[in-house]
Design a protein that fits this description.
35% of the residues lie in helices and 2% in strands. The chain has eleven helices and four strands; from the N terminus they run βαααααβαβαααβαα. Strands 1-2 form a two-stranded antiparallel ribbon. Strands 3-4 form a two-stranded antiparallel sheet. α1 runs antiparallel to α2 (21-36), α3 runs antiparallel to α4 and α4 packs antiparallel against α5. The two termini are 30 Å apart.
Length: 373
């Protein structure tokens, strides 16, 4: 997410209490503006759905980044950016985390689930409810500790998480024009404290919201397998935690291998009834890149699976060959859009290939505790 100017509400809220509230607020605003005057200033977001299978193994939670779980004795984090920090608010104590599955985090909502929410929400109220009690709440609860409390903004993960929530809302707004100003209350109301009308802060890239989201690498700029290198210290640490080494790649040739495998495409790998119910815009051929929230990287396990399918099907008559298409800009979302258009113009069978009982299983997300809803 690249900014030219940005006011971070959560940061200001944290530093705007006590007798010198006005001075502190002005200081924080000044610091943010001094950063954002540089056109290369970047405020990152964490697309946590991309890590949904093994959240604790994400490089974001690595010891050289934002750190991992808290220790058993007092739940204080033992590594990462905020190790040994003392948060004055609310109780002059360390940053605490309590993962919801020991030192692991139970699987939660996948990129496909987020994509479905974008495409099936009937209006802003519906979308907001899905996002709030879905991926928003589950990450807070899964990290636990301070992140599950009302003062969750003391954890730097809060900033990355809420930047991602805003990104997903931005995608919902932009996938069709009717969503841009859709809201479940009056747009003339003002935001508490800042006295800014809701109408004036609905469009990213306009008014005071002069920033943009950059969702994927330019895969054409490099032929190196990057994203998470299997030889990096960060990935080695997290591989030990998860017992796996599932390297991610944004190599165009690897992405092309996946995109040319019909049963690994969201547009062709499920039945048309499922596609119509959960991904109606892919079914109807009306999807665009904003209605698809899939990362433009693939895992080493997925690549191996695709190669095995290709080898097993070599020489066979593929009845699905008419639903494939050449990769567009080496982009998974762009190619899915084109595939869905072709399928609408020329309906065909989908979900062919490996028997369903032999395919990798996607874990179900953990249920939210009733007391957290």
């Amino acid at each position: 997410m690249k900014f030219n100017c940005f006011v971070l509400v959560a940061v200001i809220a944290l530093f705007s209490f006590g007798g010198s509230q006005k001075c502190r607020t002005l200081r924080v605003r000044k610091e943010l503006r001094s950063l954002s005057n540089n056109e290369w200033y970047v405020q990152p977001y964490w697309d946590s759905a991309s890590d949904f299978v093994d959240v604790a193994g994400s490089s974001v939670l690595g010891k050289n980044r934002l750190g991992g779980n808290g220790r058993a004795s007092d739940n204080c984090v033992t590594n990462g950016l905020q190790f040994r920090w003392i948060n004055k608010y609310p109780d002059n104590k360390c940053l605490r985390r309590i993962f919801n599955d020991g030192d692991k985090i139970k699987p939660f909502f996948s990129p496909e689930s987020i994509t479905s929410d974008i495409q099936t929400s009937s209006n802003f109220a519906d979308f907001s409810k899905r996002l709030e009690i879905g991926m928003h709440n589950i990450l807070h609860n899964s990290i636990g500790g301070d992140m599950s409390e009302h003062h969750s903004a003391v954890d730097a993960l809060f900033m990355l998480h809420h930047a991602n929530v805003d990104r997903i809302w931005w995608k919902y707004q932009n996938y069709k024009w009717a969503n841009m100003m859709d809201f479940n209350d009056s747009l003339e109301k003002k935001i508490i404290y800042f006295e800014v009308k809701i109408r004036d802060i609905m469009r990213v890239g306009q008014g005071g919201l002069c920033y943009m989201y950059e969702e994927r690498r330019n895969s054409q700029s490099s032929n190196k397998r990057s994203s998470v290198d299997s030889n990096s210290n960060e990935n080695s640490e997290n591989s030990e935690n998860s017992g796996e080494n599932n390297r991610l790649s944004d190599d165009p040739s690897d992405i092309s291998t996946i995109l040319k495998t019909p049963e690994m495409s969201l547009a062709t790998g499920v039945s048309r009834d499922i596609l119509k119910k959960y991904f109606p815009h892919l079914y109807a051929g009306s999807a665009n890149i904003h209605s698809i929230d899939l990362p433009n990287v693939i895992s080493s396990r997925a690549l191996e699976y695709a190669k095995n399918i290709k080898s097993a099907n070599a020489g066979m008559n593929d009845s699905n060959q008419n639903v494939t298409t050449s990769p567009v800009n080496n982009s998974i979302p762009d190619t899915l859009v084109e595939i869905s258009k072709l399928n609408t113009a020329s309906p065909s069978k989908v979900g062919m290939g490996t028997p369903i009982n032999q395919r990798p299983k996607m874990p179900y997300p953990a249920r939210m505790p009733d007391d957290f809803l």
